[in-house]
Amino acid sequence: MFTIYSFAFCYWYKGCAPEAQYKKPDSEHLSITTAAVSRPLLPPKERTMEKLLPGVLLLVFLSEGMTHSDLGGKAFIFPEESNTAYVSLIPRLKKPLKNFTLCLKAFTDLSRSYSLFSYSTKSRDNELLLFVSKVGEYMLHVGNAAVTFKAPPSPYAPVHLCASWESASGIAELWVDGNPVGRKGLQKGYYVKQEASIILGQEQDSFGGSFDAKQSFVGEIWDVSLWDRVVPLRDMCASCYSGNVLSWQALTYKDKGYVVVKPTLWA
Ligand SMILES: [Ca+2]
């Protein structure tokens, strides 16, 4: 329903071509509003519509039970194992990803496998998946292919993970708590498709569903960010969570089942 409303609005507004929705950012803090400001001057009536656009889109989101919020200093808590609790994330821009950088922080005491970030498309359930296969083993999936990185576990502390991938070389890089744990190659020349269901808390085996409680996340996740480019991970700071695709400081999401938002226990 949201998609129908959005497209209807786009056609009426005549301004939703990809190049009109989004300009390449000069900084990490681009928003729809600032993108609109960078466009050429338009007649007064259309300028008014430009100002209204984010608000109208926001209302459409909210009417569908979604929340738009600055979650800085807060975390999603998944308090118990289930195949029903999850959070759907709505990206700030929709585009195929020839490169990406994904960062998040998490705390869990699970010793089984679990999903940290599940981005599925209708053709590939593991289009972009960050998965822990067992304690200290991180799997990054791109287009249903996967590489594994091993990192010593630290069970009594949260983990800060950042993964990047570039299509041109296929090189994926993972950093754990500010330390590199290697580079591996997968899916050279591929690009991550844009029509995605992005879910925290569950691992999708089909678009938006087919969850397995034994792969669910139990614990806390926060500071989730996704960029459409390779951000040098050596320079990634602990408080860098304003991705241009997903930003923790301007997150649109919908939670289902037993999920609680609370201030983070860790910085
Ligand atoms: Ca899957």
From TrEMBL:
The keyword Protease does not apply. Disulfide bonds join C103-C162. GO terms for molecular function: complement component C1q complex binding; metal ion binding. InterPro entries: ConA-like_dom_sf (IPR013320), Pentaxin_CS (IPR030476), Pentraxin_domain (IPR051005), PTX_dom (IPR001759). CDD domains: PTX (cd00152). It holds the Pfam family Pentaxin. Keywords: Calcium, Disulfide bond, Metal-binding, Signal. Residues 72-267 form the Pentraxin (PTX) domain. It comes from the Eukaryota. GO terms for cellular component: extracellular space. One of its GO terms (biological process) is innate immune response. Transmembrane segments: none annotated. Its cofactor is Ca(2+). Signal peptide: none annotated. Belongs to the pentraxin family. This is Mucosal pentraxin-like. It comes from Vicugna pacos. The gene is LOC102538027.
